[in-house]
Amino acid sequence: MNNQSSPYPSVVADEGVARRVLAENADLMVVEFTFDQGAVGALHHHVHVQSTFVAEGVFDFTVGSETRRMTPGDSLVIESNVEHGCKAIEAGRLIDTFTPRRDDFL
To answer: What CATH code is assigned to 11-105?
Structure first.
C-alpha cells in the first residue's frame, strides 16, 4: 500500500475546473475535480466506467437523458460510452474513479 501524496500536479481541466490524479494503476484511477460555482463539466463520453462521489458542493449531473441534483455524500456510476456532464450550482469537489485508468489524464 502506498500512502504518499499524489505525484501528479493539479491541472486546469476547463474554465473553473481543476483536475488532480490522486492514485492510479493500469486498472483503476482516482481523480479529484474542483469546480468554481457555475463551472461546467461539458457533456462527453469515454470507454471507461466511471464512479463519481460528491465530496463538497451542489451539482446538476446529466447522465444520458436524465439530469439530477447531487449534494455531498451522493454518488453514481456511469457506464462505458454513456454521455454525461455536470454544472456546479455551488463551488465543490468531486472524487471520480475510472476503470481502466484514463491514460489521457497522465
So the answer is: 2.60.120.10
Tell me the pLDDT tens digit for each residue of 12-67. 999 999 999 999 999 999 999 999 999 999 999 999 999 999 999 999 999 999 99
CA–CA dist 41, 78 (Å, integer) = 14
Query: Against a cut of 0.90, is the pTM above it?
Result: yes
59 grid coordinates: 451539482
List CB contacts of 96: < 8 A, sequence separation 6 or more: 30, 31, 32, 33, 50, 51, 52, 53
Burial category of 24 from C-beta neighbours within 10 Å (exposed 0-12, middle 13-18, buried 19 and up):
buried
